Amino acid sequence: MQTGRLADILVKDGHNVTFFIPELVSINKMNGTKLAKVIRMEGFTDAFLNSMRSYGNLFDPNINTISARIRTIEAQVKFCKELLQRKNEIEIFKNEKYDLILTNGLDLCDVGLMHWLKPKTFAWLVTGPLHDTVMYPSGIPSFPSYLPTLEDTLLGTEMSFFGRAENLWNWIVQTVLHQYTAFRMNRLFRYYIDPKYPSVYDIGAESSLVFINDDEFLDFARPILHKTIYIGGAGLKKPKPLNMYFENIMQKGTQGVVLVSFGTAVYTPALCPKKKREIINAFSQFPGYHFLMRVSPDDNETIALGNEIPNVQFVEWLPQSDILAHPNCKAFISHGGFNSVLETAMRGVPVIVLPMFFDHFRNGKMIEHRNVGLVIPKTILNQESIENSLKEVLYNPKYKHAAERLQKLMETKPNQPDETFLKWTNFLLQHENLPDLIPVGARMNIISYLSLD
Fold it and tell me: What domains lie within the chain, and their CATH numbers?
């Protein structure tokens, strides 16, 4: 969605934009853009979706393992292999000779294609917090002494000695896994395109800019490079009035409405029934609030759990951003996906995060760091912890005050995301490339970079 909004910003500015969507997840048919030319590539196996579903019960604290991360890497490698096997279908992009390609920062396959497609220049587009996959090849410094790693960690910035030791171990594991990912991607490109194909890390180091869908006032304060540009919330539309159905829902509850959504990637029927029952039972202890909960299609089990609780209502889809902007929305219970966290911050709503996997944990700690919400770890997720967190967020005014302050900072900061994105994109197009912003560290191997030699 965020990438599509950026495409629309460029089209409105007069650019000719092609939005390429190789279907990583076949059930997601949304284009995200209303104005750009869309080329969708279908027919891939659902390796990535299957790797997500293989987690099973996402409330289980024992599923966030190194082996689970490796399954995700294998899914990414399989997807890239299938893409390169069909390289004749993407030959059109090579023939177009694009002035600029914005490439996804989730894995290294997209950036690897840049050497083959040969645009005049390219830039990373990170759709969430700055990812280690992008930091190392770009030469962006990472300090595990006070910056928590991105994946599967509930550490914040203020760590004890043992916390720093744990974070250092997490950083080492992530670095090894990303090196392994790069090794696998290099083998694919050298097999399917050219035996002398350069390393995906070397290709990534040549990116002119790194656009980050994050906000300086939301994320942990951290060192960045001149080439890193924060554009969190770019293209996010102003809230629209709700239709009659959802407006009627927002009028329920004498004290307001609490929105509950775990995102499209979380398959709610697979969540532990006992945990879902405890969550819904906790809602029943707040009769003055109406709880609007999004569930996956045909999740009759979850719906049945709330049949006898009058202040809980289930829907399969909802206009999340518009509901968060409604004055009667008093809090948001989320899985901690970054788009949800960013939307919540921009709407000034306190949030309770129940992290599931990947960056959800870090995003939740980021919310806590800014005092706009709380995190409930899986290890203590039960009716009591839900009730206590709701009491704190709903009845302690500090969370609403902090959320409104964060919203104001993001709305009034000097460099607004839409304008910043356009200015830097046009500047890059004007000069075709910006090698001046590439640090020496981006071209160093990991041994030299860490002075281990």
Answer: 2-235+415-449 (3.40.50.2000), 244-410 (3.40.50.2000)
